[in-house]
User: Which sequence fits this backbone?
């Protein structure tokens, strides 16, 4: 594996009026090489209190800007992201291990949220409601909910940030971000571009930290923070939701998934194989919406599994900065340990690795296809978040629907079939927030993204995402 040290040095945090150096820092290592790539500003309670006051103050100004002013600023920010897309992609690859070619796709996807919400900012309309009385006029208008505290994950360090900050800023909210410990550099780079675009530091603040509990508490306990938005594990989402109850904040939670990928025997097999590889193995399987379990109708099981394994065995594993790499490392030792546990459990209970099945040197794991799995194995019950695809047979539509829905999670599900009636029937019965019908990557800026059940609540993307940052005020007037 090649070693590249590009970001050595000490980062700062963006708080209140500009860049701040907290008293301490923590080392950030590259998952590809294990080398320290930066010393990251480690914010604590002192910095959190500064940011809290700054976001509350900045809200009074920002909320009163026009949508056209916010839109113009966001468009400049978008243009700078596009200008620096190669640099941001390398940063993502370096800090969290996503292959650089894929990271470039993420940067474009991330920037598209800023562009889309810059446009949508101008379309926050109210309503005039007819009254039953001639002497009354009824109006409904939309307003920013207030300062927002956001916690974003490491798996999409750019896109999960812009999918939140885009609609928040468009709505007129101010925004404090605690980026994932593993991927603060991308967020800091986007903050630098925000300042370059002419944005005020108090409107969008970034506070990296190694241990978020004490820092988060400052924002969670203060009633002036009106909204919390989180993407990450169901476990942490549950804690933040409970913490938000005391001050009754608006809450958006984008949590874990356990996506089924269902292939019926009338599907285009070649296409389904290509698509399951794209769906499962992007970001080395570390994506909330990537499939975690592949259901194949019995008649095509053998041929599908053989073609799937052959495609997966050809995936190139390597350093995330190598442009030819398709599968990078897991993000950290904990991520790798989970993958190893899931695969070991499956093999112990009778599954076979049709391809892969083993860890490699460092944080790498072979892209793996498992056959002979059963529903009680860990890989079929929990999100693996790694490059492992268990394949299981089914016979009937009813049987596969039962299996697909038999989980506490409900983020994304996928169906491959050429039968239009079946496609509609099955997608209607799937208890999921997102369904990909012959589409392995349905996410896009203008569409709603989010789950049901223990995958969370609230929607990001499209006009649905903007509503999460707005409240409705009703005015009744006697004339
Ligand atoms: C996620 O893993 O939550 C994001 C994936 C996507 O936007 O498609």
Assistant:
């Amino acid at each position: 594996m090649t070693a590249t040290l590009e970001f050595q040095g000490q980062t700062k945090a963006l708080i209140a009026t500009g860049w701040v150096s907290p008293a301490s820092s923590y080392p950030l290592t590259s998952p590809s090489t294990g080398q320290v790539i930066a010393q990251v500003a480690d914010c604590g309670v002192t910095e959190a209190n500064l940011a809290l006051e700054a976001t509350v103050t900045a809200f009074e100004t920002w909320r009163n800007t026009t949508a056209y002013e916010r839109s113009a600023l966001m468009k400049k920010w978008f243009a700078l992201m596009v200008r620096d897309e190669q640099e941001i992609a390398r940063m993502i690859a370096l800090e969290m291990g996503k292959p650089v070619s894929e990271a470039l796709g993420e940067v474009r996807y991330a920037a598209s949220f800023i562009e889309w919400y810059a446009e949508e900012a101008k379309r926050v309309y109210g309503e005039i409601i007819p009254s039953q009385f001639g002497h009354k006029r009824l109006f409904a208008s939309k307003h920013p909910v207030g300062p927002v505290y956001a916690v974003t994950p490491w798996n999409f360090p750019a896109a999960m940030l812009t999918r939140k900050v885009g609609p928040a800023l468009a709505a007129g909210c101010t925004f404090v971000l605690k980026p994932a410990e593993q991927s603060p550099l991308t967020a800091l780079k986007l903050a630098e571009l925000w300042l370059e675009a002419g944005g005020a530091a108090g409107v969008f603040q970034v506070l990296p930290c190694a241990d978020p509990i004490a820092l988060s508490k400052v924002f969670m306990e203060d009633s002036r923070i009106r909204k919390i938005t989180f993407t990450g594990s169901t476990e942490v989402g549950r804690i933040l939701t409970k913490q938000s109850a005391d001050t009754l904040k608006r809450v958006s939670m984008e949590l874990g998934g356990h996506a089924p990928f269902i292939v019926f025997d009338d599907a285009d097999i070649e296409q389904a194989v290509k698509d399951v590889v794209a769906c499962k193995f992007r970001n080395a399987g570390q994506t909330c919406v990537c499939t975690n379990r592949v259901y194949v109708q019995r008649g095509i099981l053998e041929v599908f599994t053989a073609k799937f394994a052959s495609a997966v065995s050809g995936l190139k594993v390597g350093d995330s900065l190598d442009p030819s790499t398709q599968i990078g490392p897991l993000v950290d030792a904990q991520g790798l340990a989970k993958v190893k546990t899931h695969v070991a459990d499956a093999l112990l209970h009778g599954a076979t690795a049709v391809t892969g099945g083993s860890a490699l040197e460092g944080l790498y794991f072979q892209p793996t296809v498992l056959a002979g799995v059963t529903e009680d194995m860990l890989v079929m019950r929990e999100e693996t978040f790694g490059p492992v695809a268990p394949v299981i047979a089914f016979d009937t539509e009813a049987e596969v629907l039962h299996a697909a829905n038999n989980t506490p999670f409900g983020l994304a599900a996928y169906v491959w079939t050429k039968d239009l009636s079946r496609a509609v029937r099955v997608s209607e019965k799937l208890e999921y927030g997102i369904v990909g019908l012959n589409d392995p990557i349905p996410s896009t800026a203008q569409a709603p993204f989010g789950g049901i059940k223990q995958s969370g609540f609230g929607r990001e993307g499209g006009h649905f995402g903007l509503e999460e940052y707005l409240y409705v005020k009703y005015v009744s007037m006697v004339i």
Notes: The pocket of succinic acid is lined by residues 155-156, 159, 231, 254, 287-289, 443 (CB under 6 Å). The chain is about 40% helix and 20% strand.
